[in-house]
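Please go through the sequence line and token line underneath and see whether the fold suits the sequence. See right below:
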Amino acid sequence: MKINFLGTCAGTEPIEGFRHVSFTITTGNRLFWFDAGENCSYAAHLGGIDLFKSRAVFLSHTHMDHVGGLPNLLWNIRKLNTLPKKKSSFSGKVLDIFSPDPRLTPAILKILSCTEGGFAIDFNIRENPVEDKIIFNEDGFKVLAVHNHHLGQSDGKWQSFSYRIECEGKMIVYSGDLKEIEEIDGMTTGADLVLIETGHHHPGEICLHFRELKNFSGKLGFIHHGRAIIDDFYGELEKARKILGKRVFFAKEGQEMEMGT
């Protein structure tokens, strides 16, 4: 199982060296996307990731820094699928998109229908809701969604979620955006890796919180970087490691991480 960090930044203005948040998990012949910030498919393709392996996209919520690259991801899959010299094909495949807001996928497809060829495709894009339950469980890849309070409810439905991923005997927790750090405490029991956002919380506070957690002894990765890390990446990393040692790391653009069995 392999994790690729395609974008590590919070919802800032454009900043050199940082893109809005997105990462992928590759297991076997399948590619799973978690959030889809700007240029995620561009970074993936040029980084050697096969977009034709895409199986599903899981969105934590629908703020622009988490979904801005989704239309281009769909467009790039179609574009690559029309190239005459392609080595494989996406034709006939299904791409599941999991979004807390049911308006998103139809809106994106409507925009794409105004592009080349009316966005005619020979593969399926299937929209799925996100609720407090296991939302995906296929061939050893399982995703549990748990709502958080970064956003409130709309029509009685939560609009922001954290995810717990189980695959190849490993457990990964992705926080999405959080109102309070403590919101994911119940999800971290036994986790091998927690990927937590720092766009709304200070790195030092996060480290101190996780140092006191008795149910978590895995690695802590910072993603969705806020101003503290953007302004002083290595300075903040040094401070974080004084608290948690090498258990903590800050995700970098283009970083690849192997999760061994």
